[in-house]
């Protein structure tokens, strides 16, 4: 009988951590970090290295003893987005690694950027450090918890409240809808039928006095598929359409339902689906939507 | 310079899982194989490359010496790097002129631990390692800085995996697919697979090489160059150290039939092609390269072995091998081999 393979768990660890001396240059940087400042060191050529190194990487010359405060703001040069942080990463939510050129520095610092999503990241993004509380800072690169984008936008909350009345034309139309009919107005001058009902002709400007009752059937002239939810719509995606009621000269906007969105088409014949009479009010909600009748399409 | 050639190369059938072999058991067959191919059982010098952090044990390479037959005592050295650098040390040793043969080997089992986290430990311990910056994350920073096109990267992975499927030593990996990111902009398939494996090479100098091999792969150029470690001090859109090593090794002094590049991430191939100024007709990584098998610490040596094999088997006249070490192609070794 084959035996299970022999496997042992094994950990490599320095209990309590491994102590490293910093030397004067890195030590100065970490000391300044503990105090909430970021410094670079000036090279003999005048470049400012951040984080400071003991030697100029290009020439091998020792750096000067001139420390320069930089940042705290900086510019993202390159970034990589971590959707699933790993154990040991500085943040436990999605974040970006970034090369950040702090203001006044000639080299870039590697650190984490706490951004909401990858699409918030771009070269040129301006960021600032988010420091750990002073009492928690010990002189460690993680004394900066992460960098965060500079503020470039803010949200303004606006809400005004009104009482709105529908006006005479719409009131009249809604009375019809409450009673299960579509009321239109006919301009005797232009011989055009407008629905919803209106009291003046938009074409010639004359007053409309003639009411016409239209049937609740019509033809889709154009439509849109909506992918954002709307409290009035049966589901997402839903279709809003221009429907030319039979006998009308202008189309009316309404929902189309009882049909998959991708099957709706221009010229489709539809009929209103009404709420039961006992639920009807002075509201367009009386018409749930228009549904296909199954008749042949109409040439528009 | 003393003429030195690769006369034998062997590698394991690499696996994507732990076969339950110790390092010694892993390397023993490839040592036996290069001994047979070269006809040598003792070597003037022996050098290996491995990383104790892969096994999580100090001096783990010492126990691997059991695979060699190291008694009576042999002249031996080790680099805590990819074994391509062990080959460099052996080449330098052969330049002294007092020994004529060298055995070089490298091995690694990435399956035992968390390679991404282990590679964090190679980073500077003050500024980078404490952030927990892992291997795929720093590679992704370079990929984004370079700005490689997605279609180009996909094609590199597709080609590498197809070539790998034709290489019995490499892993069998499907064509790349999937829209998710490992660390954006890198997808999981842009990252070399976790691999266990080993490889060995025998070098011989001058007439002895001609005697032992029908068609020795002569090392006509070999050089390595390094850049600053800290990523923010470097231009990550290119690899100046690979450029310098390529020039010093003389890559451009003749045609390049085949180039084996130590690209552990798809975008690194693009950066290296530019750095080494490889002509369009050069065949890159016909073995599948590291994207088809990445036995860490042997992967760079395998590049030299594969490039040499193309000459040993008569398929090519002049080849280039590249090996790398450190984050984001920090340190690069380029070898030119000729028939």
Task: Please supply descriptive tags for the structure shown above.
heterodimer; A: 300 residues; mainly beta; 2 domains; five-stranded antiparallel β-sheet; 2 helices; 16 strands; 8% helix; elongated; B: 339 residues; alpha/beta; Peroxisomal Thiolase, Chain A, domain 1; ten-stranded mixed β-sheet; 11 helices; 33% helix; 20% strand; Thiolase-like (chain B)
Folded structure, characterized:
The complex is a heterodimer of chains A (300) and B (339). Chain A has 2 domains: 23-149, no CATH class; 167-292, no CATH class. Chain A is 8% helix and 31% strand. Chain A has helices at 23-34, 167-178, and strands at residues 38-42, 48-49, 67-70, 74-82, 95-102, 109-113, 126-131, 144-149, 182-187, 192-194, 210-214, 217-226, 238-245, 252-256, 269-274, 287-292. Chain A has a 5-stranded antiparallel sheet, with no helix packed on it. Chain A has a 5-stranded antiparallel sheet with strand order 14-13-12-15-16, with no helix packed on it. Chain A has a 3-stranded antiparallel sheet with strand order 2-1-3, with helices on one face. With 339 residues, chain B is of the alpha/beta class. Chain B is 33% helix and 20% strand. The model of chain B has no long low-confidence stretch (mean pLDDT 95).
Strand and helix layout:
The complex is a heterodimer of chains A (300) and B (339).
Chain A: H1 23-34, E1 38-42, E2 48-49, E3 67-70, E4 74-82, E5 95-102, E6 109-113, E7 126-131, E8 144-149, H2 167-178, E9 182-187, E10 192-194, E11 210-214, E12 217-226, E13 238-245, E14 252-256, E15 269-274, E16 287-292
Antiparallel strand pairs in A: 1-2, 1-3, 4-5, 4-7, 5-6, 7-8, 9-10, 9-11, 12-13, 12-15, 13-14, 15-16
Chain B: E1 4-11, H1 23-38, E2 45-49, H2 52-55, H3 60-64, E3 76-79, H4 83-95, E4 101-109, H5 115-118, H6 135-146, H7 150-165, E5 196-205, H8 206-212, E6 217-226, H9 240-249, E7 258-260, H10 266-275, E8 283-284, H11 299-312, E9 318-325, E10 331-338
Helix pairs in contact in B: 4-11
């Amino acid at each position: 009988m084959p035996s299970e393979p022999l496997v042992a768990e094994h950990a490599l660890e320095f209990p309590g951590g491994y102590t490293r001396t910093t030397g004067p240059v890195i030590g100065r940087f970490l000391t300044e970090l503990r105090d909430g400042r970021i410094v670079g060191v000036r090279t003999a050529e005048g470049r400012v290295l951040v984080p400071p190194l003991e030697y100029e990487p290009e020439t091998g010359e020792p750096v000067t003893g001139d420390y320069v405060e930089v940042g705290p703001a900086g510019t993202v040069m390159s970034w990589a987005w971590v959707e699933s942080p790993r154990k040991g990463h500085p943040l436990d939510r999605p974040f970006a690694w970034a090369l950040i050129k702090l203001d006044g520095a000639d080299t870039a610092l590697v650190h984490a950027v706490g951004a909401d999503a990858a699409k918030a990241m771009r070269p040129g993004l301006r960021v600032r450090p988010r420091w750990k509380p002073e009492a928690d800072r010990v002189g460690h690169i993680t004394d900066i918890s992460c960098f965060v984008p500079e503020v470039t936008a803010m949200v303004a909350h606006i809400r005004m409240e009104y009482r709105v009345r529908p006006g005479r034309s719409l009131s009249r139309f809604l009375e019809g809808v409450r009673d299960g009919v579509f009321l239109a107005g006919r301009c005797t001058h232009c011989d055009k039928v407008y629905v919803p009902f209106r009291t003046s002709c938009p074409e010639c400007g004359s007053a409309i006095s003639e009411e016409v009752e239209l049937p609740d059937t019509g033809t889709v002239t154009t439509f849109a598929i909506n992918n954002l939810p709307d409290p009035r719509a049966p589901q997402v995606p839903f279709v809003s359409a221009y429907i030319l009621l039979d006998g009308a000269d202008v189309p009316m906007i309404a929902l189309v339902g009882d049909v998959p969105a991708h099957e709706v088409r221009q010229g489709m014949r539809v009929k209103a689906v009404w709420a039961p009479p006992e639920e009807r009010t002075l509201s367009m909600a009386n018409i749930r939507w228009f549904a296909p009748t199954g008749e042949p399409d109409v040439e528009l | 310079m003393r003429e030195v050639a690769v006369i034998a190369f062997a590698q394991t059938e690499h696996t994507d899982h732990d076969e339950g072999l110790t390092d010694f058991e892993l390397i023993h067959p490839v040592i036996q194989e290069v001994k047979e191919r070269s006809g040598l059982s003792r070597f003037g010098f022996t050098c290996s490359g491995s990383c104790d952090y892969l096994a999580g044990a100090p001096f783990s390479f010492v126990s691997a010496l059991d695979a060699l037959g190291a008694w009576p005592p042999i002249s031996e050295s080790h680099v805590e790097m990819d074994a391509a650098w062990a080959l460099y040390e052996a080449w330098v040793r052969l330049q002294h002129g007092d020994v004529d043969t060298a055995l070089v080997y490298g091995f690694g089992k990435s399956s035992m631990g968390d390679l991404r986290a282990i590679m964090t430990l190679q980073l500077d311990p003050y500024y980078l390692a404490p952030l927990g910056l892992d291997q795929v994350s720093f590679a992704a920073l370079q990929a984004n800085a370079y700005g490689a096109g997605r279609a180009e990267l996909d094609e590199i992975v597709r080609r590498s995996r197809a070539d790998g499927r034709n290489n019995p030593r490499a892993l069998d990996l499907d064509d790349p697919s999937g829209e998710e990111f490992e660390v954006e902009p890198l997808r999981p398939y842009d990252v070399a697979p976790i691999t266990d494996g080993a490889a060995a090479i025998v070098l011989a100098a001058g007439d002895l090489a001609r005697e032992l091999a029908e068609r020795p792969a002569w090392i006509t150029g070999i050089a390595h160059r390094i850049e600053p470690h800290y990523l923010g001090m470097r231009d990550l859109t290119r690899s100046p150290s690979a450029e310098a090593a390529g020039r010093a090794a003389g890559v451009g002094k003749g045609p390049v039939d085949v180039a084996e590049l130590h690209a552990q991430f798809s975008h690194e191939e693009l950066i290296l092609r530019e750095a080494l100024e490889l002509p369009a007709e050069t065949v890159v990584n016909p073995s599948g390269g590291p994207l088809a098998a990445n036995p860490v610490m042997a992967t760079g040596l395998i590049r030299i072995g594969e490039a040499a094999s193309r000459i040993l088997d008569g398929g090519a006249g002049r080849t280039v091998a590249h090996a790398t070490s450190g984050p984001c192609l920090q340190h690069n070794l380029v070898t030119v081999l000729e028939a």
